[in-house]
């Protein structure tokens, strides 16, 4: 997992309330080899004129320069639907580091944290105002500072807290998944096991 401390980027607004995981990556692509990257399948069907056709230039992620953005602004209940972790893989492999939205599907939200993708919840009114600002000022940038636990918005929208689970935050800051985080306590775990066996020798039989 790639460590995340602070990311400053332009923002692409993805339309659609209840954008589910099948829209993020259609199920038929989940058989593909992850080593080849799932980024090529991100929003595959909704960013095309038809399921297998050419890219639709009206879709925000297809516009010039949009592929340089590492932050997406999404609408309410983003990532709902099935529990497929491939939806997060597609975003991460495309180079997306953070998402801003009013709410996220619960399983998707937790999958994001486990893969170093930072989901930032902001009030829906603020997200709507930010989208309008980006329409008028497409070059505007946002900074997600996980180390300082804040997001800095453009214009007069100010600075807002970024609140995620402390354990998940530490792992993302260090670029470690849950297993790797656990292994950082290897010496303490071994010491506990040795002491436990010494005080309860029957456990080792």
UniProtKB/TrEMBL annotation:
UniProt keywords, alphabetically: Amino-acid biosynthesis, Branched-chain amino acid biosynthesis, Leucine biosynthesis, Lyase
Pathway: Amino-acid biosynthesis; L-leucine biosynthesis; L-leucine from 3-methyl-2-oxobutanoate: step 2/4
SUPFAM superfamilies according to UniProt: LeuD/IlvD-like
Keyword Membrane: no
The keyword Membrane is assigned to this record: no
Substrates-to-products reaction catalysed: (2R,3S)-3-isopropylmalate = (2S)-2-isopropylmalate
A GO molecular function held by the record: 3-isopropylmalate dehydratase activity
Domain Aconitase A/isopropylmalate dehydratase small subunit swivel per the UniProt entry, residue ranges: 4-123
Parts forming coiled coils: none
EC number: 4.2.1.33
Function: Catalyzes the isomerization between 2-isopropylmalate and 3-isopropylmalate, via the formation of 2-isopropylmaleate.
Binding partners and assembly: Heterodimer of LeuC and LeuD.
Family membership noted in the UniProt record: Belongs to the LeuD family. LeuD type 1 subfamily.
PANTHER family, A to Z: 3-ISOPROPYLMALATE DEHYDRATASE SMALL SUBUNIT (PTHR43345:SF5), 3-ISOPROPYLMALATE DEHYDRATASE SMALL SUBUNIT 2-RELATED-RELATED (PTHR43345)
Protein name: 3-isopropylmalate dehydratase small subunit
Lineage, top ranks: Bacteria, Pseudomonadati, Pseudomonadota, Alphaproteobacteria, Hyphomicrobiales
């Amino acid at each position: 997992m790639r460590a995340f401390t602070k990311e400053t980027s332009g923002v692409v607004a993805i339309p659609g309330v209840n954008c589910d995981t099948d829209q993020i990556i259609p199920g038929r692509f989940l058989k593909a080899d992850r080593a080849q990257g799932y980024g090529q399948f991100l929003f595959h069907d909704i960013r095309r004129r038809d399921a297998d056709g050419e890219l639709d230039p009206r879709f925000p992620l297809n516009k010039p320069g949009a592929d340089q953005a590492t932050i997406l602004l999404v609408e309410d209940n983003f990532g709902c639907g099935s529990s497929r972790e491939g939806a997060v893989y597609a975003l991460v492999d495309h180079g997306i580091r953070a998402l801003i939205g009013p709410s996220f599907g619960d399983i998707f939200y937790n999958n994001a944290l486990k893969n170093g993708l930072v989901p930032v919840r902001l009030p829906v009114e603020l997200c709507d105002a930010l989208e309008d600002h980006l329409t008028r000022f497409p070059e505007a940038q946002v900074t997600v500072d996980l180390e300082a636990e804040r997001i800095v918005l453009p214009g007069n929208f100010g600075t807002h807290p970024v609140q995620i689970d402390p354990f998940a935050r530490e792992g993302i800051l260090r670029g470690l998944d849950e297993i790797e985080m656990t292994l950082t306590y290897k010496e303490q775990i071994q010491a506990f096991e040795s002491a436990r066996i010494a005080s309860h020798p029957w456990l080792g039989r």
